[in-house]
Structure to design on (1012 residues):
């Protein structure tokens, strides 16, 4: 079932690429993505938060000689990330299928292959399989950016690929070293299964350098503060529908990797480097917020705000407290369903501003397009974590988890919440109100454009009023992934769980 | 010649075990003779067909002899799985090279028959080399491999670069051979034996720190490093690869390299295994140096052949790392990588040759610009080959690197694994430049003039209509080898089983 979930989009798009009709590739890719979305909804409906461990496990030997298994599984940790992925991809592919693309067959095949690779990364329960999907993920995005991107795309692709592949190849070496050292340590044959690796942690020494290699890969992917060098160029040049999922979904893979792989398998190293990672996240929050306030390109504002948001998520993960991790997972989903429509809206308003993405050349769009402006306002409020939005719950939980153990960091991080409202409202005012820009020709959003946005808004609303839909299902799995760290740091914040419920 | 020597010694000849070599030799003679006939049709069509037939027969006979595991010619050659798997690699590379040369300039300029006969001769040399069980056969095999190649490099007689390439290869190759033979002499002097097994047992019985022996080992390793283009003995590689006719370059890059590593495995992991504490660190250092030099050298190259030459140096470094750990796992990883390397490199070269003929840019990177919209059937194989060389998942290149890193970490060479990974990161910069040219740049002016009327960026759907006059066999080679690269990237177990059989040959010594 999970294999169908993963490969359906790619298979459908491949069939679409073979049908000689102009609209076929887009429609079939959309069909495949919707099929996967349907499967995930069925998964969520059938998932009970009471049980721990994986369900729907697929486990077959892939490469016998290396002990690599094709092993997939769902638990509370990745369930909603998978849902967010299929959801965002389905809508982004839908939004893309409205437009005309040069070479549509290759475009949609790659777009759908990207979805398959991301889903594989989230579902893989074998470290080698995870690494393979993690690397594979980048190829379609590389080509999507390089072929269909903006004018400076070639330089952007090079930066993106060098940064991220440096990370993932180091992770490959680290993954193999981890498995080999573990098998020498325990005397069992080589295995990359995450459960086996977590069952017998290594000594602290090897754990530490392996941790650093993994952390580098994940922090680049997010991106986090000093490792974000590829981000501005890539964000500026990527086709907007692709960027919506790239920013909404791919950035979560890094954070997910920490929770799925790093914390359960390398607890001693995670505790050892806790302060370092917390400080990096704090720097990401402050730097991202400050840059988001000073940039004038709308895409970059959203990009830097993502850096800040991911800083929050990392803070939550490395708080080593149940609320923090819960908040981080919630926030991953929230950020995904907020930032994806944000980019789609940016695409729409850029068209209305005569193709410019500079907020100095926008303004006054709201007057002729009140519905679009309303949509934008909702998304902007969600971004700044307005009380009543799902992001508020997420950030609140994160800071709550952190407050108990690292009060100073938590207090500084609060400023990030304030800064978010400043930059989010600045964008909204400068684009929608203010003086009408020189080339602005505003018009209302069309029904088809709206179709891609409305589901996002409904999801935002759902998570705003009822975040328990996720929290209830993910609590056990998320708590399980930080249990070693809690034991090591002696954090006693379990009692706060009752506070959280209110 | 070898068959005759056997005849003198004894009545029993194991013709079955010798059959792959015989097929190559007979094929070589037949091809040479048929090539003397007048009609153009025979020379241009029948001769390559006969070459392929001879290589096909070799493959068939090799598979027939699988698990034969015998020594022939008084123990001078071992027909074991290691030799047989290498024979398969050489013959496959030979078939691909024949198809790539079929309608190119080089065979025409050198009277068809000669060209293919030399190629078959060279392959015979490779088989002898990797089957060799004593120092003399080793040297005979090496020379039988090299001398035809010197000529093949210079076959485009009207092009100065080709002649220069042949001459350069001849001089450097001779230096390498001389070093090797000097080393062999010293080893013989130190141990008093020419048989690999006799030398190995002599080393185990207390000759291991003999200065004479150590000098011999060093010289032998250096001699073989010349052939395998290991830094700092790689300087000939870019010039020779660039100057030689491209089908010959493809053949050299794949088959010669495989032969050099096959014999390195035999020499180091069987004959000199008792010395491994001395050569392991040196080889690891050479591997690290080669990875860095190759990858950095490839960065600024505009010529695709030169770029692939430096990339082949880097890849040689990866493969040498597998030899350097001196474990059975390392030997397996080496063999696996050699197979993978064959697949991805032939795919890349097939596309380059096709573009050399279709565009006025030769092997410059401009020749593949805009290929993505012009001819997807060539663009995809090139893309897959580049991704595989860089080691991206879902290609065999990923599996190869994965296995190498696994062997390195298990063998206690984690630092070398990190160097390998860092090298791969550098390599992305130049492999992706090719992909960027294929997909992200419009074709440069003149060659698009043929497809006039269409806007440059808009690919449009009916791509198939605009396939330029690319020769069908090049497309077939490119597609088949690229498809195999992807297939073995997803289903690698057959390859693992294959190399496991072959490495068992060595496991007695390791």
């Amino acid at each position: 079932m999970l294999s169908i979930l993963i490969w359906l989009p790619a298979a459908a798009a491949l069939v679409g690429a073979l049908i000689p009709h102009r609209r076929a590739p887009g429609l079939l890719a959309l069909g495949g993505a919707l099929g996967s979305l349907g499967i995930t909804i069925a998964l969520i409906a059938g998932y009970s938060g009471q049980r721990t461990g994986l369900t729907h496990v697929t486990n077959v030997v892939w490469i016998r000689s290396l002990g690599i298994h094709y092993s997939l599984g769902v638990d509370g940790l990745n369930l909603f990330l998978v849902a967010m992925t299929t959801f965002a991809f389905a809508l982004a592919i839908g939004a893309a299928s409205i437009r005309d693309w040069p070479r549509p067959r290759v475009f949609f095949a790659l777009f759908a292959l990207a979805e398959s690779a991301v889903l594989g990364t989230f579902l893989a329960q074998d470290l080698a399989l995870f690494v393979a999907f993690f690397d594979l993920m980048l190829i379609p995005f590389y080509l999507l950016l390089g072929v269909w991107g903006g004018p400076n795309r070639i330089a952007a692709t090079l930066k993106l690929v060098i940064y991220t592949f440096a990370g993932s190849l180091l992770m490959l070496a680290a993954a193999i070293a981890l498995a080999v050292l573990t098998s020498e340590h325990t005397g069992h044959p080589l295995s990359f299964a995450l459960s086996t690796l977590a069952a017998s942690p290594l000594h602290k020494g090897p754990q530490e350098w392996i941790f650093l290699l993994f952390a580098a890969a994940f922090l680049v992917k997010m991106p986090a503060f000093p490792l974000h060098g590829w981000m501005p160029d890539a964000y500026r040049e990527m086709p907007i529908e692709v960027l919506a999922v790239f920013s909404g979904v791919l950035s979560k893979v890094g954070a997910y990797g920490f929770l799925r792989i790093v914390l359960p398998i390398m607890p001693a190293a995670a505790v050892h480097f806790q302060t370092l990672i917390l400080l990096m996240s704090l720097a990401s929050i402050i730097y991202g917020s400050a840059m988001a306030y000073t940039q004038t390109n709308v895409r970059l504002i959203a990009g830097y705000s993502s850096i800040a948001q991911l800083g929050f998520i990392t803070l939550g993960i490395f708080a080593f407290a149940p609320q923090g991790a819960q908040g981080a997972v919630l926030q991953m989903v929230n950020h995904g369903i907020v930032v994806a429509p944000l980019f789609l809206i940016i695409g729409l308003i850029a068209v209305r501003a005569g193709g410019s993405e500079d907020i100095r050349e926008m303004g006054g769009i709201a007057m002729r397009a009140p519905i679009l402006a309303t949509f934008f306002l909702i998304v902007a409020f969600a971004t700044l974590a307005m009380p009543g939005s799902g992001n508020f719950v997420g950030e609140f939980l994160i800071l709550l988890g952190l407050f108990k153990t690292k009060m100073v960091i938590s207090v500084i991080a609060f400023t990030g919440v304030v800064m978010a409202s400043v930059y989010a409202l600045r964008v909204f005012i400068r684009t929608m109100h203010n003086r009408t820009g020189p080339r602005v020709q505003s018009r209302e959003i069309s029904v088809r454009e709206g179709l891609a946005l409305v589901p996002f808004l409904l999801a935002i609303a759902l998570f705003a009023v009822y975040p328990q839909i996720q929290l209830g299902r993910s609590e056990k799995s998320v708590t399980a992934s930080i249990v070693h760290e809690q034991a090591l740091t002696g954090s006693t914040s379990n009692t706060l769980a009752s506070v959280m419920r209110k | 010649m070898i068959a005759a020597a056997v005849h003198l010694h004894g009545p029993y000849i194991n013709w079955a075990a010798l059959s792959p070599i015989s097929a190559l030799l007979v094929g070589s003679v037949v091809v040479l003779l048929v090539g003397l006939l007048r009609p153009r049709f025979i020379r241009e069509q029948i001769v390559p067909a006969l070459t392929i037939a001879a290589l096909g027969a070799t493959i068939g006979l090799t598979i027939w002899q699988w698990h034969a595991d015998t020594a022939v010619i008084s123990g001078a050659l071992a027909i074991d799985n290691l030799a047989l798997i290498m024979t398969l690699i050489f013959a496959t590379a030979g078939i691909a090279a024949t198809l790539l040369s079929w309608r190119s300039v080089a065979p025409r300029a050198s009277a068809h028959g000669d060209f293919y006969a030399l190629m078959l001769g060279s392959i015979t040399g490779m088989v002898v080399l990797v089957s060799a069980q004593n120092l003399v056969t080793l040297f005979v095999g090496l020379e039988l491999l090299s001398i035809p190649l010197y000529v093949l490099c210079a076959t485009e007689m009207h092009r100065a670069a080709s002649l220069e390439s042949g001459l350069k290869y001849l001089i450097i190759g001779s230096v390498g051979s001389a070093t090797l033979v000097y080393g062999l002499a010293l080893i013989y002097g130190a141990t008093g034996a020419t048989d690999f097994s006799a030398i190995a047992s002599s080393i185990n019985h207390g000759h291991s720190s003999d200065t004479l022996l150590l000098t011999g080992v060093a010289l032998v390793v250096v001699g073989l490093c010349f052939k395998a283009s290991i830094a700092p003995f790689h300087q000939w590689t870019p010039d020779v690869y660039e100057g030689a006719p491209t089908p010959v370059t493809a053949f050299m890059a794949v088959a010669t390299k495989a032969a050099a590593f096959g014999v390195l495995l035999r020499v180091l992991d069987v004959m000199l295994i008792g010395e491994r504490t001395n050569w392991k660190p040196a080889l690891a250092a050479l591997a690290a140096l080669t990875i860095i030099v190759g990858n950095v050298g490839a960065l600024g190259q505009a010529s695709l052949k030169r770029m692939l030459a430096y990339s082949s140096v880097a890849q040689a470094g990866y493969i040498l790392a597998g030899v350097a750990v001196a474990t059975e796992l390392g030997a397996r990883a080496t063999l696996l990588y050699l197979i993978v390397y064959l697949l991805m490199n032939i795919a890349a070269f097939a596309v380059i040759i096709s573009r050399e003929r279709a565009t006025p840019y030769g092997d410059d990177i401009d020749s593949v610009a805009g290929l993505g919209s012009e001819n997807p059937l060539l663009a995809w194989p090139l893309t897959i080959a580049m991704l595989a060389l860089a080691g991206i998942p879902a290609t065999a290149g990923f599996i190869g690197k994965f296995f190498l890193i696994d062997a390195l970490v298990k063998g206690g060479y984690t630092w070398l694994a990190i160097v390998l990974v860092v090298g791969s990161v550098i390599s992305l910069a130049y492999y992706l430049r090719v992909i960027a040219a294929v997909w992200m740049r419009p074709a440069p002016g003149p060659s698009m003039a043929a497809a006039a009327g269409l806007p440059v960026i808009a690919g449009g759907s009916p791509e198939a209509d605009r396939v330029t006059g690319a020769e069908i066999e090049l497309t077939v080679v490119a597609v088949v080898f690229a498809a195999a690269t992807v297939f073995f990237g997803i289903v690698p177990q057959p390859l693992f089983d294959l190399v496991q059989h072959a490495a068992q040959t060595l496991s007695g010594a390791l």
